[in-house]
Amino acid sequence: MTQSNNQSTSRRDFLKTTTATAVGTGILASLGSAAHVHASGDDQIKVGLVGCGGRGTGAASQALSTKGNVKLEAMADAFKDRMDSSLSNLQKQFSGRPERVDVAEEKKFVGFDAYQKLLDSGVDVVILATPPGFRPIHFEAAVNKGVHIFMEKPVATDVTGVKKVLEAAKKAKEKNLAVGVGLQRHHQAPYIETIKRLKDGAIGDITSMRCYWNSGGVWEPRLAREDAKSEMEYQMRNWYYYNWLCGDHINEQHIHNIDVCNWLKDDFPVKAYGMGGRQVRTDKKYGEIFDHFAVEFVYADDTRMYSQCRHIRNCWNSVTEHAQGTKGSCDISGAKYETDAGYKWKYRGKKANPYQVEHDDLFAAIYNGTPYNEAEYGAKSTMTSILGRLATYSGKPVTWDEAMASNVDLMPKEFSWEATPVTVPDENGFYPIPTPGVSKVL
Amino acid sequence: MLSVCRSSLLMQGKFAFLAAMLFSVSLANAGDKAKEMKPYTEKIANTDVSFDMVPIPGGEFIMGSPANEKNREDDEGPQIKVKVDPFWMGKHEVTWNEYDIWSFNLDIQRRKLLRGKSDAKEKAADAVTRPTKPYTDMTFDMGHDGYPAICMTQLAAKTYCKWLSEKTGHYYRLPTEAEWEYACRAGTTTAYSFGDNPEKLDDYAWHYANCDDTYQKVGQKKPNPWGLYDMHGNVSEWVLDQYIPDAYKKWSGKGTLKFPINVPTTLYPRVAKGGSWDDEPEALRSANRIASSSDWKIQDPQIPQSIWYHTDAIMVGFRVVRPLKVPTAEERKKYGLDPAIPEDEGR
After folding, report:
1. Residue A37: pLDDT over 90
2. Residue A129 sits in which domain range?
3. What Enzyme Commission number(s) apply to this enzyme (chain B) (predicted)?
C-alpha cells in the first residue's frame, strides 16, 4: 500500500574508487568574460583568515577550492602556534597549487588585535572562525572595512553580541557586502529539497518540530591550568568550556538543528522553557558549561519546537531534526517523510559536501555581485540558542523580547592576556555554575 | 550479540585455560593445537560486554572470482591460490557496545566508579591511545546497542584491536584481505557462501533492498558454513590491506601464497570487504573488493581531518581475528599489523 520512489538507482559510488577526488584539488575553472564585481577590481580574490583552528583552516581550504582565482594572503590568530600549524596544513593541502596559499611574514598577525591588522592589510574576503564570542566584534570591524565575509556559526554568545551582529548585518546590506554564515545545512541539497517540500505542504501544516544534538561531547580541555600563564590564556585555549567564548553547547553545536526548525517555520520563537544541568561533566577542568539541555521553544502561532542537546557518553545519541504535520511526519535530517495516507518520500538526488557548497555559493555571489546576506538569520538562530540557554540556566520562561531588551554582556572589558574574564574560578579552581531557580540571567 | 548463551558462559573459563595452554606450547605444535581450537566468548573486563569468537581452520583456498562470475570486476582476478593459517574470527561484526568502551573510556569510568584497582592488563590497555571524541553522533541515529560500529577509520579499527589485545591478553587484529575472503567463503567457491543465486540473499544478508535504509542488529540472518554472521552485507568490513587494483595480477604465477598482504603505504585507498546495507547484491559477493577514498571523510569540516572518523562511511565497520600463532614483533612490523598513529596527530 505504500508508494515509494525508491526506484532511483543513485547509490554510494564508493565502490572501486581508486583515485581520491579530494576537495581542494578541483580544477581552476575559467571565469569567462563576464564583469566580476569585487573589492579589488581584478579577477583575484584575496582572502584573510581570522581564527586558525581546525574549522578555520577547513573553511580557508574550502574558500580556496572555489572556482575563482582565490588566494589566501593573510592570517590572524590569538596564538602563533595555531596560525603556524594552520598555514602548514594549508600548504600541504594545496601543495599542487602553492600559489593559492601565499602568506607573507608581514601578513601574519598574532594577538587580540590581529583581526584589525589583517583587515587593514587589504583583503577582499575575510573568514571569521575564532571562538564565537569574538564574532560580533570581528564582524562589525569587517563590515566597517567593507570586505566580504564568511563567518562561522554561532555568530555570538550573548544578547549584546547578537544585537551588534544584527546592526552590522544591516550595514553590510547597505554596502552590498556578501555575507555567508556557516549554517551549511542551508546549502545541503537533501535539506533544501526536504524543506521546500514541507513548505509546499507535503505533510500538511506543521504542528510541532523536534530536534537533537545528543552526543558524547567534544574535545577534552587542551591545557591544564598550571600550564597556562594566565586565566585568560587558560580559557582561550579551552574555549569550549567558557560561556563568553562558546555560549555553551546549545549555542555552539545545537544551533544547527534549531536553525533548521526556524528555517522550516520561517520564523523565530517568541519564548522558551528549559531545563538542564551538569550531571556528569562536573570536574573543574570542564569550566562552566552544562552537559544537558531540554528546551521547549514557542513560536508566535503557538507551534512548539522541542529541542534536546546532551554531552554525555553512552546515552541515546542523535543529531537530527523532525517535523510533525497535520497530514504526516518528516525526518528532516534523513530527508524523508511519510504521509498518513501512506505515501513515502526520500531524497535520492545528489549529495555534495555542504561545507564546500556554502563557499561555492558565497564566492559565486561575490563574483557576480549578487546580493547575498545570511547574517540576519544567522544572528536570529544564534539568538534562539541563547534564548534556550537563558531559559535553562534560570529555570524560568524567557521571552525573545525581554531577552533582546537586556544588556547582559559576557565579554571581558579588556582584551589582553592579563585581563580578567567575566567568570573566574574559586580558590579550588571551580567556576560558578548557573543554578536553575536561583540564577538571574537577564 | 549480548545475550551470551549459558553454555558458552560456563565454558568460558575452560577456554581461557585452553588459550593459555596454547600459547605456552612451542609454535611447532601449533598445527596440532589447531584441532583443539574451540569457539569461545571473550569478556571485556570492567564491563558487562562480551563477544564470541569462532575457530577458522587453516587450509588452502582460491582467492578472487572466476572470470565468468556474474558482475565480477577486473580487480578480482586472476584467481590465486592461498594457504591460510588457523585463526579465530569474530562471530559478529564489532558492535557499538564493544567499540564505545574503547572510544569513550567506559571501562576506566566504571573502574573508577566502583573504586576498582587496575591490574597489569588494565594498565597496558589504558596506555593505548583512544580516539578524540567525535564531533557529531556516529551512529547517525541508526541504533546503538547490538548494532555494528561504523564510521571508524582503518587506523581506529586497528588501534581498537591493539587495545583489545592488551585488555584481554589475547592477540587480536584485523584480518588480511585473504583471511577475510577465506573465512567468508568457508570452503565454498560460489559468488556467495550460500551459492550463486542473489535471490537467496535475504536469508543471509542485509542489503539495500531489505534493510529500510539502515544497518541492522548483528546476527539476525543465517550464518555462513563456518558460523560467521553478516559476512555478506550489514556493514562492509575493514581488512588490513592497501587497495591495489591489480594486486592479484602481481601475485599470480607465484605458486601458493602464504600470508599475502599489501602493506599500506598511502592513506587511500585501503580495502573493505563484504558489502553493506547500502549496497546492491553484487557488492556483497565474497570476492568483491571495496576501496576507501577521501570521500569517506568529506563532511569532516576540520583541517587536519580526524584520523579516527570517516564521517561519511556509514556503511563500514569491522570484525576482529585472533591468529593461533601470535606474530613476533618482527612479523608485526614487516606486515604492518600494528596501528601507526601519525606523529602530528594533534586532535
Report:
1. no
2. 45-185
3. 2.7.11.1
CB contact under 8 A, B137 and A23: no
Cα–Cα distances in Å, from A71 out to A45, A188, B6, B333?
6, 25, 65, 42
Between positions 22 and 51 of B, the ones with CB within 8 A of A are none
Domain B43-322 belongs to what architecture?
A: Alpha-Beta Complex (3.90)
pLDDT exceeds 50 at position B328 = yes
- Does residue B11 register a pLDDT over 90? no
- Contact map slice: B 59-98 vs A, CB within 8 A: 73, 75
Least confident of A172-181, B128-137, B147-156: B128-137
Could you tell me the residue ranges of all domains in chain B? 43-322
Indicate whether A118 and A222 sit together in one domain.
Answer: no
Q: Does A154 sit behind a cis peptide bond, omega within 30 degrees of 0 on the bond before it?
A: yes
ipTM value, please give it.
Answer: 0.84
Are the Cβ atoms of A20 and B293 closer than 8 angstroms? yes
Q: What's the structural domain count of chain A?
A: 2
- Identify whether A5 is part of a domain: no
The answer, for B216 touching chain A at a CB cutoff of 8 Å, is: no
- Specify whether A237 is located in the same domain as A383: yes
Same domain, A199 and A325: yes
Entry pTM: 0.88
Residue B110 CB burial class (10 angstroms; 0-12, 13-18, ≥19): middle
List the one residue out of B63, B71, B65, B67 whose CA is nearest residue B281: B71
- Is the pLDDT at B59 greater than 70? The verdict is yes
| Cβ-based contacts of A16 with chain B (< 8 Å) | 73, 75, 289-291
Of A132, A153, A185, the residue that ends a domain is: A185
